[in-house]
Amino acid sequence: MEQQQDIQLKYQAPVYKFQRIFEQNQQKHKESMFDTKDLISIYNELQKKEIYLTSFISQGSFGCVFEAKYKEEIVAVKCSRVNLEKIKEEEDILILLKDTPYVFKSIENFLNETKSIYYQITKRYLF
Predict the structure, then answer these.
(1) Does the pLDDT value for residue 95 go beyond 90?
(2) Does residue 4 lie within any of the structural domains?
(3) What are the Protein kinase domain coordinates in residue numbering (predicted)?
(4) Distances from the Cα of 22 to the Cαs of 16, 28, 62, 111, in angstroms?
(5) Of 8, 33, 66, 120, which residue is the least packed, with the fewest Cβ within 10 Å?
(6) Is residue 41 assigned to a domain?
(7) What is the CATH number of the domain that holds 96?
(8) Is 98 inside a domain boundary?
(9) How many Å apart are CA 114 and CA 89, to the nearest integer?
């Protein structure tokens, strides 16, 4: 039986909270993929697509992941620098794992206007 997600947006976290989280995370990951300026750009680009960040999940040298509200769902948003070979590899893996219940399922993928950041919007099926 599938559990219901709480899709009510409790609040829309302001960009300064994400900046502070990023700055703290950058101290841990010396080779972070994004800096504070990038974060503001990510935040604004996602809002234009009506994707509202609700919390920060993780950041490493390959990108970062946020929780967000998108349409009527709570989703994960993965942001990474554009690397077409890696994007294709990830898409192939998701196709192979499409019937696995605990894998993040792709909802939408897109590049930003400058084609410098790749976004993957996914949801996870909970059982």
Answers:
(1) no
(2) no
(3) 51-127
(4) 10, 10, 14, 21
(5) 8
(6) yes
(7) 3.30.200.20
(8) yes
(9) 22
Tokens representing 84 are 């077409």
Q: How far apart are alpha carbons 30 and 111 in whole angstroms?
A: 25
- Beta partners for residue 104, in sequence order: 124
Token representation of residue 111: 């590049």
Q: How many domains is the chain built from?
A: 1
pLDDT given for residue 1 in this prediction: 43
pLDDT in tens, 18-31: 677 667 666 665 55
3-state secondary structure of 91: helix
Q: Are 2 and 64 a contacting pair, CB within 8 Å?
A: no
* Predicted local confidence at residue 31, as pLDDT: 59
Q: Is residue 10 situated within a structural domain?
A: no
72 token code pair: 């009527």
Long-range contacts of 20-26 (CB under 8 A, 24+ apart): 21/56, 22/56, 22/59, 22/64, 25/56, 25/59, 26/59
